[in-house]
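pls design
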């Protein structure tokens, strides 16, 4: 039953990400916490969610680098 509860919680997180992409950092943290909980319980980690968390991390790091360079909006460069 624990795996099914995690699936529901993660599905809710995915809905939140779709509704509020500007909050992706907070949602990424929530996803990371859920994956850590699953791992602590010995449950298998869904590869697509692990990949998503890694993608979000890389995306946030890229955004931070752009802000440091004064290029917060990549669309403004075009």
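designed seq:
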């Amino acid at each position: 039953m624990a795996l099914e509860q995690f699936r529901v919680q993660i599905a809710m997180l995915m809905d939140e990400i779709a509704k509020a992409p500007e909050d992706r950092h907070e949602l990424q943290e929530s996803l990371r916490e859920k994956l850590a909980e699953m791992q602590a319980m010995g449950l298998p980690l869904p590869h697509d969610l692990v990949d998503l968390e890694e993608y979000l991390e890389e995306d946030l790091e890229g955004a931070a680098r752009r802000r440091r360079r004064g290029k917060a909006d990549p669309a403004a460069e075009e």
